[in-house]
Amino acid sequence: xxxxxxxxLLADPLKLIPAIESLEPTIPAYAYDVExxxxxxxxxxxxxxxxxxxxxxxxxxxxxxxTYRKEQRDVHRIPSxxxxxxxxxxxxxxLSGGIEIDATIRxxxxxxxxxxxxxxxxxxxxxxxxxxxxxxxxLKKNYTQCLxxxxxxxxxxxxxxxxxxxxxxxKMRCSFFSPATGDIIIPIYDQYGAMISCARKYTVAxxxxxxxxxxxxxxxxxxxxxxxxxxxxxxxxxxxxxxxANFVFHGQDRPEYADVLPKIERxxxxxxxxxxxxxxxxxxxxxxxxxxxxxxxxxxxxTRKTFQLSDGGDLKYVEAKGSQQxxxxxxxxxxxxxxxxxxxxxxxxxxxxxxxxxxxxxxELMFLPAxxxxxxxxxxxxxxxxxxxxxxxxxxxxxxxVGVKLSVSMPVKPKFKIELPRNLTEEYTNIVSxxxxxxxxxxxxxxxxxxxxxxxxxxxxxxxxAAEAAKLKAPVVQPNTSV
Length: 483
Known about the structure:
Elements: H1 3-9, H2 13-21, H3 40-43, E1 51-60, E2 66-73, H4 82-95, E3 99-103, H5 110-126, H6 129-143, E4 145-154, E5 170-177, E6 184-189, E7 195-206, E8 209-217, E9 221-228, E10 231-239, E11 247-251, H7 261-281, E12 285-289, E13 292-296, E14 306-309, E15 314-318, H8 323-341, H9 349-352, H10 360-366, H11 368-378, H12 381-400, E16 412-416, H13 424-436, H14 442-449, H15 455-473
Antiparallel strand pairs: 1-2, 3-16, 4-5, 4-11, 6-7, 7-8, 8-9, 9-10, 12-15, 13-14
Helix pairs in contact: 4-6, 4-11, 7-8, 13-14, 14-15
């Protein structure tokens, strides 16, 4: 849809809303069923129907044979949390290191650039974006979409103290929406793939009735439409004073685990079938050849049961050969493929047993596929999404504090960090060796080890302690008492 087409339809909601709804993306049904108890191996009786079994009636027929009746019994239903593991690992690798604001302070605008940066960091921390970002990314990776909307609210007294003048009376807040809460986000692109608008369709309760609404976000305003008794009508228009649309759309084409979903479902099927089989044949069957003439023991006596057989009789255990191993091998291969194909680390306590001092390079290799995937995200869509947040917030800060208007053009970008397990013993040994060889300063060494949140203050303490120790070691000069 082109911006001219969209603008022409704004005055006619009865035509506008259907045109927007025609652009509504399809969210896969399985994205709503990510919780294990909602997987089809548990909930879909046509996929895994109940089994029919014969149950003895306790009555013999006229030939002396036991009679049976048919009964329906449920089968084992064993779901997996693999989808959630894939999502959690992907989000963790992307954002567990937080998002820093990397700004270039320009000499010609140093004062305003520093104020702008301070306001951005204050807004970032106030909205807890290092934590909120992970929630947003998780929603995007499961439902393929999440909409973040920024808006201003009155700032509490002293909020901007030491940063912006007292005339700065507002601050920024954000809310995010996704299909997880029943919202449907409809991004609107032009023929060149540029996003020109975005709509949010949702339901609210009014007078105990569900009412459908839609918010349409434009660069200078957002319009709320309501589906009333006469159809769609405009409810209200809210102006946007930032010079930019006040939303950022986070999206991807498919859920993070979409490629391996058939393999996950097969693992659940194998686990459930194996449980059914184990219930029936986990223990071998005793087969008798010939006639059993007598037996003793077993039962309530809790003794080994013995049998007396007629001439030529024999007893043998009968059990399946190979089937269990085949199922085990299939499951192992499926699990390996699932984690490999999604770049998800598969690390268990059994694998780590006895590995208390893994070399740093081995740790990096263990996480290499996940690291490459995260770096690709950070340098791709994820980075662009958070770059849009920063660009929007710069414009917002210039409205809240007109004194930083010149710094809207200050170069700012998100900076990501990938957190991996560390071999601190190895790092410490290497850094100490570099310091001892004169190739690294103690100040830099303290920062590299990152044992403290304030490396500068820590280094000052180290110097003070070293000076104090030097005083204690200084030789005491005895007074000359000779005549």
